[in-house]
Amino acid sequence: MFDPSGIAVVGASASEGKIGYEAMANAAAFDGPVYPVNPSGSGTLFGEPFVESVSDIGGDVDLALCCVPGPALPDVLEECGEAGIGAAVVYASGFAEAGDEGERLQARVVDVADEHDVSLLGPNTSGFVVPERDLRCSFASGVEKIPAGNTAVVAQSGGVAHVLAFQSRRQGRGVSAMVGLGNRANVGFTEAIDYFDGDERTDAIVLHVEGTDDGRGLLEACRESDTPVVAYKVGQSDVGEFAESHTGALTGDHELYTAGFAQYGVPTVDATDDLLDAAAALGNSPEPAGPNVGVVTAQAGPGIIVTDRIQRAGGRLPELGAETRARIDDVLPGVTYTGNPVDTGRPMPEFGELVTAVAEDDAVDIVLVYELFEEALGFPVASLSGLAERVGKPVLFATEGVEEEMAEEKAALAEAGVPTFETPERAADAAGVLARYAELSARVAAEEVSRDA
Amino acid sequence: MFDPSGIAVVGASASEGKIGYEAMANAAAFDGPVYPVNPSGSGTLFGEPFVESVSDIGGDVDLALCCVPGPALPDVLEECGEAGIGAAVVYASGFAEAGDEGERLQARVVDVADEHDVSLLGPNTSGFVVPERDLRCSFASGVEKIPAGNTAVVAQSGGVAHVLAFQSRRQGRGVSAMVGLGNRANVGFTEAIDYFDGDERTDAIVLHVEGTDDGRGLLEACRESDTPVVAYKVGQSDVGEFAESHTGALTGDHELYTAGFAQYGVPTVDATDDLLDAAAALGNSPEPAGPNVGVVTAQAGPGIIVTDRIQRAGGRLPELGAETRARIDDVLPGVTYTGNPVDTGRPMPEFGELVTAVAEDDAVDIVLVYELFEEALGFPVASLSGLAERVGKPVLFATEGVEEEMAEEKAALAEAGVPTFETPERAADAAGVLARYAELSARVAAEEVSRDA
């Protein structure tokens, strides 16, 4: 599915606006063979000659994008199976989310897929995208602009998958893949987590969950994953009827999910932007050893916000060691506040040295730096570069300023592997996720040891 | 203070990096006279000749930016007062936030200021900016890029004032003014709220509050304000010691503040981005008559997020009227979900008509629209333009897509007065603030009636 040799676009259409046109337009960029399939098509589409049926294609196609209405699907999938195509994306809706008749149709489709060993993404999805391979199996516009990154976005809703991918772009990040699962006929959370855990482009997996009837499978896949997983479970208030009409799943009990995720080592968040922030922190940092956050700030006000928020998000602010305090006092006698946070009052050339001192403190597991951008000083890129790897701790950086004036310095931080954040609250929440991840991981590991004993 | 004729920069300096240099660099853009004041200065600074003392300046200066150390301040303020300068910004720290000696110094400074009737912003602030007048009384870099808008930012912390102003820029908005109050020696929340309530550039006032010992004054100023006020009270967890070291105020009890704000008609939020979103919603909308939100979405997944979140934020999703349902069915038979939210499944040319139908429903007080951008269709600008004014209800719009592809259409929405939001959660939270504002305002009004009776 996510690493095909060639693609068949079944139901490809020359009519702009139709899904069969938009899907072909996006798929055509793929560097393997892409075949528009339509018995009534003639000539070429995006430079590729129409073929009548998937059975007319040789063995170089292993993924079918099905742009056909629901009722045509069983036959199409059968043909795909017989042609040796092992994966299919189904965009059509009108299945399990649409009442009894749709449910029966979905059951038939799954039977055919299972019988022919076809992995089936959807139905009722907008598809998936793997930016690094120019693999754009979505009918939505703009997906060619989604940048490559190291976060795999696995969303129950195709719409939310796109929301997350475009958001990630706006935040200057990117995705290793973005997948909308839709009705999860036979490719669900479990299969996606398994796959992206083994994917070398992926360093963090984020889940958008509305509800599933295989909660245990989902949780076990999370626990098995060596790649960090963060989950966003929607539906705390009653949105049952509307949600059911969407992907055919009840949103279920929010607290149960949250507790379940925690028990299986998965931190949860409560918004799309927090989900991507958490992935940026987890996917670009050494694994945190504990929940203790050392904060260095160049301005007190944002420092208070960050401190407050970390504590509420599950992190702790330990006292710094005597040695660290002495170092700080050495670098900068009379610094505004030498507790934790260390507050320098304003940006200064010594800022990077103070960050280093805090990062090297044994009481600190995670470092968070806040600094408003001051053009004359820039960011302490030299001090931050390689710091996380050297001390074996996550180092997060948040700032604010004029975007275009900061651009170069921000790029230098990204180059140095330092994850950056847009607001003090979001940086603190990301540190909180790291803190919870450390605690949950330790708990899960301890349980495994006691179970083995 | 916020509308001066001319400015004196006391302690102006030719040494780059010094506050007296940076403050002069920023102030120099002002279109009235700006005087660098320094007895040891010679020649000119940013084209303006140095003067020895404020007493050497004629009567065209009414604001002094004091870039002098704390101990020099009583004399400087006395000279200002005697020269008829009625307002001063004090950047220096080392006052009430820094222990007993600082407290005594601050008391002396306030005495001098009061005696000479000088309004004093600070001490311990980075100042203020009024973009539309090119009035940049801050020493921070980049403030010349803060765009003009209709939100007044009043922050206890100068750092947070800058965070909010730059964030507002990043969000494509702007501020009528941004003010860091610092230690609030004699210009505090009360004075700032009073001023911006009467400021014709300001349609919403946002407060960042760490803590104050004049809670009642603050709350009463909020209630007196005809301009909507939203507050962000920081410090839910214990940050007491660090906060006290900052602006000399305890952060106090978060719940007490929140309840107090509610009682006086002020909705509260819990993050800097939410604060600006709330202002964008309140400052660019007719006053909402109630908490009932009609949601129209082009994608179910974001629609579920929005629905869930509105309900948790204090809004309600009423059932739409029979007439509205019939209109929707007329425009688009078999639309995916005709309850509230109305879900069209994907963007379509009829989308704007559906939004209009929902906006005109009597059960609806607030409208929220979510739509992923599809280039071939654009946004329903024609339908949305003037809609809020016509129906007398706020209409909020949230989207996601490729920024540069959406830019033109987003600008058209801004031109049409439609406030836009960056994530489904933030749009829903803004709708929640509108809902709470409507309920709180109604309660405050009812109390006033019963008190008068």
UniProtKB/TrEMBL annotation, chains A, B:
PANTHER family: 3-HYDROXYPROPIONATE--COA LIGASE [ADP-FORMING] (PTHR43334:SF1), ACETATE--COA LIGASE [ADP-FORMING] (PTHR43334)
Gene3D superfamilies: NAD(P)-binding Rossmann-like Domain, Succinyl-CoA synthetase domains
UniProt KW keywords: ATP-binding, Ligase, Nucleotide-binding
Pfam families documented for this protein: CoA_binding_2, Succ_CoA_lig
SMART domains documented for this protein: CoA_binding
Reactions it catalyzes: acetate + ATP + CoA = acetyl-CoA + ADP + phosphate
EC assignment: 6.2.1.13
Catalytic class of the enzyme: ligase
Protein name from the UniProt record: acetate--CoA ligase (ADP-forming)
InterPro entries attached to this UniProt entry: Acyl-CoA_Synth/Transferase (IPR051538), CoA-bd (IPR003781), NAD(P)-bd_dom_sf (IPR036291), Succ_CoA_lig_flav_dom (IPR032875), Succinyl-CoA_synth-like (IPR016102)
Gene source species: Halogeometricum limi
Domain CoA-binding: 1-95
Listed SUPFAM superfamilies: NAD(P)-binding Rossmann-fold domains (SSF51735), Succinyl-CoA synthetase domains (SSF52210)
GO MF term list: acetate-CoA ligase (ADP-forming) activity; ATP binding
